[in-house]
Amino acid sequence: MIRLENVSKTYPNGVKALDDVSFSIEKGEFVFIVGGSGSGKTSIIKSLMREIKVSSGQIYVEGVDITKLSNRKVPKLRRNLGVVFQDFRLLQNMSVYQNIAFALRVTETPTRIIRKTVPTLLSMVGLTHKAKMKPYQLSGGEQQRTALARALANNPPILIADEPTGNLDPKISWEIMRLLQDINMRGTTVVVVTHDREIVDAMKKRVITLKHGRVIKDIQRGDYGYEN
Amino acid sequence: MRIKTLWYCLIEGIKNLFKNRLMSLASILTIVASLFIVSIFYSITVNLNHTLDEFEHNIGIAIFFEENVTENEILTLKTQLEAREEVYEVTYVSEKQAWEDFKGDYFAGREDLLEGFDEDNPLVGSASLQVLFDDISKQDHLIRLLESESIVRHVKEAREVAAIVENFNDLVAYISLALIVILSIISLFIISNTIRLGIALRKREINVMRYIGAKSMMIRGPFIVEGALIGVIGAAIPLIAISNFYDRVIQSIMTQFYLLNDFLVFIPVEQLMVQLTPIMLISGAALGIIGSRFTIGRYLKV
After folding, report:
1. Percent with pLDDT over 90 in chain B
2. Which of A83, A89, A107 is opposite residue B214, by nearest beta carbon?
């Protein structure tokens, strides 16, 4: 599903963000990627999204080597990867419903299907009753759930969550993690980048630990191994 | 691409125009000013060319013949000349006609002074062909050809007048061209800046679209539409202005500079608009699209 082979990335300013990183994630897995700032977590996500090009090595997503992907095919890659971010990135001038529908609209989904899909997504994240509200009227947890519904709108096989609980208090964080687990149960591969020790330790999932751009640990049913 | 996507780009493009009101207005006004100047120059050029065309038809050459040449030979040459593309009109002026013209020009009202001449035409051998051209720039070639004819004694040409007319034509064309280039660059600059601001205003939305996997046409389309709209609106305003004021301006030129009336020949407003409308709309749209693509290429990466 996702495979990195000897991936290195050196930025133009000379910073080596990734240093010979290799790992693979199978279909249906739930994986944490942990590490401190500057460990290379963000560079991995950006490389997977083809926002940056790696300096060397190969990255396969759904069997396609995305390091050789032409710009024209990048949108197709990104439709395979749903993403949510720490800061939600919702559009403030649109309602919850419109934010989710937006993801379908810009991928040229017929209106008929949009009308059917959005209510399903809303009920999945438990926001049916807040469909008409604007993001600023919602709590942080509700905003992140909206973002999750939007990320899943095009039914991607892989969901990437970049510090999804970074802006949320512990109780709400657990709600989001439970939702991610539900999504994983339905067959979606989930990759969570985080430094929330408590959550990682409690979930007992696979943990890939990065330090200075290298994979230093990759353990099934692991815990937060990175020491500050 | 789906029809719906096309609609989407169109509607979002119009929204961009309003979201970005002040800059849109500024760039529309710049295009209006540029295209207004261009269209005024175009109108001047067209009218000048029209006038010069008329004028060109009035300058020509006169061919005079050797004494023993018969009228038939002259008329044969006339037919040959008429078949040529650059020739507009050939008139045969016989000895008799030449004498009549001469009398008319110099002795009008004093015909009594010329009594006795009629039986003995003093202009014997002055039969000529008057040739008028469609394109005076091609007269040199014809003159050389004629001078090599054995029956031709002399070709009287209007070379200098032709050169002046041609030079003037060129000058106007060069000025117009220089203006068009300068104004186009200014317009492109303003449009691309407007689009850049539009992109900045929609940065969040564009980012979301990118990671959701929207095709680049979906992201870029609205900005291309915005550029094209700025161009087309900018072209429409001077068109409306010119179609309304053209006749009035001509009227005032005719009354203010009545001495020029004999020289200037204006084309009617309908004829001008038929030429000007497509030129302006297409160049307006082209400026808008090129200007926006310019910015999009630099600021909207995959």
Report:
1. 18
2. A107
Q: Which amino acid is at A30?
A: F
- Contact of B253 with B192, CB cutoff 8 Å: no
Nearest CA distance, A51 vs chain B (angstrom): 8
Two tokens, residue A136: 């600023």
Report the C-alpha gap between A8 and A43 in whole angstroms.
10
Chains A, B: CB contacts within 8 A come to 48
What are the tens digits of pLDDT across the range A99-138?
999 999 989 899 999 999 999 999 999 999 999 999 999 9
Q: Are B184 and B287 in contact (CB under 8 A)?
A: yes
- On chain B, the residues whose CB falls within 8 A of the CB of A111 are 4
Residue type present at position B37: I
d(Cα B92, Cα B86) in Å, to the nearest integer?
Answer: 18
Question: Is B180 found in the same domain as B38?
Answer: yes
**Percent of chain B scored above 70 by pLDDT?**
88
State pLDDT tens for residues A58-97. 999 998 999 999 988 999 999 999 999 999 999 999 999 9
B9 vs B1, higher pLDDT? B9
Contact flag A108-B210 (C-beta cutoff 8 Å): no
Q: Give strand pairing partners of B152.
A: B65
Spell out the residues 6+ positions from residue A172 whose beta carbon is closer than 8 angstroms to its own: A139, A140, A141, A144, A165
- Same domain flag for B46 and B131: no
Q: What value does the mean pLDDT of chain A take? A: 92
Domain boundary among B157, B173, B190: B157
The side-by-side arrangement of strands in the sheet containing B87-93 is B87-93, B128-133, B60-65, B152-156
- Please count the structural domains in chain B: 2
Domain range enclosing B253:
3-55+163-299
CA distance A129 to chain B (A): 24
Please check whether residue B169 is in contact with residue B197, taking contact to mean a CB–CB distance below 8 angstroms.
no
SS3 content of chain B, % helix, strand, coil (to 5): 75, 10, 20
Residues of A in contact with B6 (CB under 8 A): none
**Residue B84 and residue B100: Cα distance in Å, rounded?**
29
Task: Tell me what the pLDDT averaged over chain B comes to.
Answer: 82
Same domain, B281 and B252: yes
Phi then psi dihedrals of residue A190, to 5 deg:
-120, 125
Domain closes at, from B116, B131, B157: B157
Same-domain check for residues B182 and B267: yes
Question: Band of the pLDDT at A180, cuts 50, 70, 90?
Answer: very high
- Indicate whether B172 and B33 sit together in one domain: yes
